[in-house]
Amino acid sequence: MDVTTDVLGPEYEAIELPLGQDSEGEVVATLVRRRGSERGRRAVLYVHGYIDYFFQKHLADFYVERGFDFYALDLRKYGRSLRPHQTANFVHSLSDYFPEIDEAVRIVREEDGHDVLLLNGHSTGGLVASLWADRVKGQGLVDGVFLNSPFLDINEPLVMRKLGAGLARMLGRRFPSAKLPAGVSDLYPRSIHRDHEGEWEFDLEWKPLLGFPVRAAWLAAVRRGQLRLHGGLDIDVPVLVMSSDRSVKPKPGVADLTSADAVLDVEHMARWAPRLGRHVTLVRIQGGIHDLVLSAKPAREQVFTELDRWMTGYLS
Hints:
Shape: globular
Low-confidence stretches: none
Helix content: 25-40%
Largest sheet: 9 strands, mixed
Distance between the termini: 31 Å
């Protein structure tokens, strides 16, 4: 394995995972590892969201303080894994991400010797993690799943969801890289970056304020994954789903951007969470934002209190 010191500092290692080639050339993913001072038998694997990568060091602190070695994946074509010849954040199917999750879990369990593994996914990473956990059910590879504001449905009215998905499917077949007239407002990333209205530091090349274009094949892949989940998954371990208590449409001057989900509809999360498996816990965080661990301190503390309680009950 190619192991180097990560950009986050000497406590973190970066492991490059070669994944062969696709139509754009060489593909890699990056596994970020932070071990606790005492080697434990428990670990967590974090999977980031869309237009995202792992930078939330305080999340790693939380897990390490509770005896979990921390791992995070920068998926192919995201963050540390994005190469100059690649289309940022682009895949044809969400299952394209399964090989790097498979390899990360193999390293965590077989090479690093962990017996208990929590899978933690945020937003689109929550959808990917759910589909992967359903795929490997019965194999004993994961012991619990924590989803932070998972992307379980498209945040548009029903008619627009159907029209948008239909357009993505049609274009995706012939012009997979076609840019769609959709995107994420820059108001949310501005509300969290410390150079603007927020308190967090992240790389604006890897997580730009204006995001990356939404491509037809990518949106079609997301919609296929969501509909697969809507039909019912069978994740065979306890699942914790957390969301904000409310959503808000991002507009200039809207103060609620710092106390509500400005990206997804939290009612979609509540509606579809029971389709994940047989043992699902849903917790709503008052004043939480889309990435709940980046919320203002009172909401952030509630997130970690609820997560700690759930972990104590199910992953002791």
